[in-house]
Amino acid sequence: MASGVYHGINPGMGWPLAVSAALMDRAPGSLRRALLALAAGHLLAMAVILFPFAALMFIAAWHEEIRIVASCLVIGLGVYLLINRRHPRFLARVPPSRLALWSFLAALAHGAGLMLVPIYLGICASGPPEAGHAAAATLMGRNLVLAAGVAVLHTGAMTLSGGALAVAVHRWFGLRFLSRSWFNLDVVWALSLMLVGAISLLVGH
Amino acid sequence: MNLRPDPTFHASPKLAMQAPVETLAFTLMLSPDGSQPDGVAVVDVDPSSPTFGQIVHQVIMPNKGDEFHHFGWNACSSSLSPLSGHAFLERRYLIVPGIRSSRIYVIDVKEPRDAKIHKIIEPEEVFAKTGYSRPHTIHCGPEGIYVSTLGGGGEDGTDGPPGIFILDCETFEILGRYEMDRGEQDKHYDFWWNLPRDYMVSSEWGLPPQFENGIVPEDLLSNKYGHKIHFWKLRERRNVQTIDLGANHQMALEIRPAHDPSKDYGFCGVVVDTTNLQGAIFTWWQKPDGTFEAKKTLTIDPRPEAPENLPPLLQGFGAVPPLVTDIDLSLDDKYLYVACWGLGEMHQYDVSDPMAPKLAGKVDLGGIARGTPHPNGKPFAYGPQMVEISRDGKRVYWTNSLYSTWDDQFYPGEGGGQMVMAHVGADGGLELDKDFYVDFPKGYRSHQIRLEGGDCSTDSFCYPSA
After folding, report:
1. Which CATH class is domain B13-451?
2. What φ, ψ does residue B283 adopt, rounded to 5°?
3. Where do the structural domains in chain B lie, given as residue ranges?
4. DSSP 8-state assignment for residue B207
5. Mean pLDDT of B300-316
6. Which ipTM value was assigned to this complex?
7. InterPro entries given for it (chain B) (predicted)?
8. Do A184 and B196 touch (CB under 8 A)?
9. A-chain residue closest to B262, CA distance
10. In chain B, at which end, N or C, are there fewer CB atoms within 10 A of the end residue's CB?
């Protein structure tokens, strides 16, 4: 939930595009449509990252190893983003009419999906201990549902917080708020990735 | 990288108009015969300053013969779209290309009165990485810094068509050509775009042999200069439509889209109609089905003149053509300024109805066979040419040189570089400021002007004013 709000209020994840869409078309409905497209792209990016991990989790014996690998991946991406502050240029090639695609690619490229993996693994591990003895198929089903739940909850929180900001800017605050409230979160973002990874590593041991 | 967006980035044109006014201008200085290196003059435009109307700093280049013409910023308000990922760039560098040398200078103006060269891209690198030559218009946009060129490869720039290439907006490395499908585009001049609507418009002057050694009258009279405008899917890098304005509409130069991106039209200035010597403005617009159309919405008549008063080039015509060489649109999309470099007039048109421009103001200054002096009594060489409008729309600045070799053909024997400023009345109208008259150092001419913090031909906006 918290990670969703965090992603949502970050202008870099797209809410200003919803404001722009509403102003361009002079129709508040366009704001809703743009938010939905952004949410769909983000949700898909979460799913693409989380589901493989969910599938792997049925190998109950490897929980520990998977968790360590995932944590290291997240920390690694954080370190990479800290050193390389440049945003991938291919994102600028996506036309404004394809917001879902842009949102999907942006979430993947900035590791928004990967950030959820340690959180998800943490939730899996905190499940009832007897789950470990359940049939593999049941376990896998439970993991997939959990993954979907995490992705939906996260995207929901993100869309609500980003949407609230977009509506507020569109109706009350005005566009001036956009440049005033936009902070460079690149470093904070990279550090958050490293932090999430580190917590996951430590909790696991 | 900044922690907040640069304070000179504005979400909408309306917000840009409300921003603090400019106190400095950057104006290009060019040595027409290449005897001195070109430079960038920093001009004090703050009326409360003791050095108002004076050049307070000069950045002089280490090379000669660059011939500066147009230039632009490394970053502008277009960075405020999350799509680009460039929200924290600084508006700090001026990208200044030499159209004769193909060399590109990056000037650091963070401390404007101590501006200095940050990087030089040598011509060989431009040729090798792009196959283009003679870089011209600069715009900052989604993929970095876009640079239009006037020439293709080879010694005279006719080996392959000219086009646009992209510079990295942080390292200023050349990334490569822009075009993936140029359609029938084979000449180039200006370009600009509408970012949310994802289209670009480009125009045509002529190929290097048609301008470098002066205008070629035979080519002009046989309609061989550019007369088409091209519409592109900006991010697909594809020419989707070409509109021929008619072969007699020679030299379609400046492209000025409405600044408010929710408006779907713009303007293009045509230097001369070879059937009647008129200058013209075309209005182009996007139709609901996404295709484009263009229509001539304004003509400016030539002025009859006795042949003995005319330069040899024009004696056969017995008239002074207006020569619409530059146009600029105020940020509220209300006034279009049209430089009539031949007549020696700056026109102001109310284009609230873009299909029916109405003359709202006019200033006489310089001009072929007329040479109207400045109200302060001093001479103004050539005619009003490169024009730039303050963000708030209240002041209009312009200089006088068109292009070294062309100046000498249309105004033989004249010389000098001047920059002047006019005030815009509350309901239109245009009046020269008696106290603002910049006379450039001996041997220099003046060309494009950029205003501190952005102006009316640099910034592209991602959000409508409404």
Report:
1. mainly beta
2. -105, 130
3. 13-451
4. -
5. 95
6. 0.86
7. Se-bd (IPR008826)
8. no
9. A24
10. C
